[in-house]
């Protein structure tokens, strides 16, 4: 298992959390997505490391911004 943590900006409510979770969950190999609304912290657990570009694309698709790591 691999775990990566990112910061997402622009989320303001539970619907935002759901949108980000849904988009990232569609990335191949992702097992779990935990989103903390207050901090913008997103933890992605996957069976293989996930490319940051894939996470960035998913977050952008949801309408938010992934802060560069």
UniProtKB/TrEMBL annotation:
<dbReference type="Pfam" id="PF00403">
    <property type="entry name" value="HMA"/>
</dbReference>
<dbReference type="InterPro" id="IPR036163">
    <property type="entry name" value="HMA_dom_sf"/>
</dbReference>
<feature type="domain" description="HMA">
    <location>
        <begin position="2"/>
        <end position="67"/>
    </location>
</feature>
<dbReference type="InterPro" id="IPR000428">
    <property type="entry name" value="Cu-bd"/>
</dbReference>
<dbReference type="InterPro" id="IPR006121">
    <property type="entry name" value="HMA_dom"/>
</dbReference>
<dbReference type="InterPro" id="IPR017969">
    <property type="entry name" value="Heavy-metal-associated_CS"/>
</dbReference>
<dbReference type="GO" id="GO:0006825">
    <property type="term" value="P:copper ion transport"/>
</dbReference>
<dbReference type="GO" id="GO:0005507">
    <property type="term" value="F:copper ion binding"/>
</dbReference>
<keyword id="KW-0479">Metal-binding</keyword>
<protein>
    <submittedName>
        <fullName>Copper ion binding protein</fullName>
    </submittedName>
</protein>
